[in-house]
Design a protein that fits this description.
With 466 residues, the chain is an all-alpha fold. Helices cover 72% and strands 0% of the residues. It has one domain.
Length: 466
């Protein structure tokens, strides 16, 4: 899972040293918190109640009076929800080594701004002005961060990776496991083609430009798989220079931000079905957080098109998740093993550990995917136990919808945090050769992703979940 903000001006101010224990990994905290919220929602549902009261979201509105009336009638619910999120986030980030004096004010700010952006997105005319919440959150965050309107210490509470991983786990509870099994082989095949071809193009161009093979490998995997995390993992695996990973991270962030705007715009221009666009975004984005922002933005657009199928907004995010998170991200470990062997046997030794083995695949495997799958299996079993007819009526409203709303909040925190932790001046000084090599891969990635998502597997993605 790539953290878009790493290397983009994010500081670890307020963080204390941490060990390698499970409770020091944001993957496992995302799994624990996500499954905990799902369990709470189920216990309430089984007891004849619901988490819906706490899982409040701004209502659709046309006039300012309607919006004011909504908040006047529901302010207690928002206060209670803030308290719930604050406890959850404080416990998780505290365990990860961040100080409460930094994370608490940061999260309160994050929540308040997210409420405002969420409310703007519910405006009846928002779609006419392209005010999709993920894009608005990114722009607002970028402005705040790059105008230096907040102290850098608050970055400790803007943990993009944790919020996005938490959102993915909660997403599992809204995707039946049968759907994942049905689309999984297509996602894995498409992801494998994209990963191998994109890596090959970037590596070949980088070598042709005279770049060191280790640096070329880091560039290649950064574009082929999961940008930031991949750059860090592969740099360690092949013994690249420390600055090589930093350069690749900067390039990944630059292109990831551009794609947040470009891919939904192109999808709308081409009138792509929501699932097809989500798959294309999944093959063409370079960071999970940025990809989720783009997929949700287009899902919002597609759902408002006359005649759009029910669930179009979720279809885009589901296709992206299957394509990027389930399909491409698992390649981090595979590339780490393969390239560590190549570096040790074919390239000049630089003190790397040549003993990397198959165990590295598990070590680098994105663990939050396990939470995503467990959530999906759990909700599928619940549906079978209560019967699909009953599940479609009561359970959807009292169990699934509250989880879906909490997922939307988690993603909103992640999208806003992307902007709040990205300083554009930190992206300068990359150099023309690495940028050119990576950009060549971008061009191939986008075209290949479009061909696979639209022409080859378009029928699968267009019918996803229907």
């Amino acid at each position: 899972m790539s953290e878009l903000v790493a290397g983009a001006g994010v500081t670890d101010a307020g963080r204390t040293p941490s060990g390698a224990a499970l409770w020091k990994k944001d993957d496992w905290w995302a799994v624990a918190v996500g499954l905990g919220l799902i369990a709470l929602a189920y216990v309430l549902f089984a007891g004849g109640s619901s988490l819906a009261w706490l899982a409040v979201i701004p209502a659709k509105w046309t006039t300012g009076d309607q919006l004011a009336a909504h908040f006047a009638a529901n302010w207690q619910r928002y206060v209670a929800q803030l308290a719930l999120w604050l406890v959850v986030v404080s416990v998780a980030l505290g365990a990860l080594g961040y100080r409460l004096r930094d994370t608490v004010p940061a999260f309160v700010f994050l929540y308040v701004v997210s409420v405002a952006i969420f409310a703007l997105g519910q405006w009846a005319s928002a779609v006419k002005y392209n005010l999709e919440p993920p894009l608005v959150a990114l722009v607002v965050g970028l402005l705040i961060a790059n105008l230096n309107l907040l102290p850098r210490g608050l970055d400790a509470g803007f943990r993009v990776e944790f919020y996005i991983k938490l959102g993915v786990v909660l997403l599992g509870a809204t995707l039946p496991f049968t759907l994942i099994v049905w689309a999984g082989p297509v996602a894995l095949v498409q992801a494998s083609i994209v990963s191998i071809v994109t890596f090959g193009v970037i590596f070949a161009v980088a070598r042709a430009l005279g770049l060191d093979p280790r640096f070329a490998a880091v560039l290649g995997v950064g574009g082929a798989v999961c940008g930031v995390s991949a750059a860090i993992a592969i740099a360690a695996a092949v013994g690249a220079r420390k600055q090589d990973a930093a350069i690749v991270i900067s390039i990944v962030i630059l292109w990831a931000i551009l794609m947040i705007f470009a891919l939904p715009f192109a999808s709308e221009l081409l009138a792509l079905p929501a699932g097809v666009s989500g798959a294309w975004i999944g093959t063409s984005e370079f960071a999970d957080a940025a990809g989720f922002a783009a997929a949700q933005a287009y899902g919002d657009i597609a759902s408002k098109v006359p005649g759009a199928p029910a669930g179009a907004a979720d279809q885009s995010v589901a296709a992206f998740t299957l394509m990027k998170v389930v399909g491409r991200d698992v390649w981090i470990g595979i590339w780490a093993v393969v390239l560590s062997i190549v570096a040790a046997t074919r390239w000049e030794p630089t003190g790397i550990d040549s003993r990397a083995g198959v165990g590295d695949i598990w070590r680098r495997f994105p663990k939050f995917v396990i939470g995503f799958l467990l959530a999906s299996i759990f909700i599928t079993l619940v549906a079978q136990s209560v019967g699909h007819a009953q599940f479609g009526k009561a359970a959807t409203a009292d169990l699934v919808t509250p989880i879906k709303n909490l997922r939307t909040w988690a993603f909103a925190f992640g999208f806003l945090s992307i902007g709040l932790t990205t300083r554009l001046r930190d992206l300068a000084g990359v150099g023309p050769k690495p940028l050119l090599a990576f950009s060549a891969g971008v061009a191939v990635n986008i075209v290949l992703g479009f061909v696979l998502s639209v022409l080859v597997f378009g029928g699968y993605w267009a019918q996803l979940g229907q």
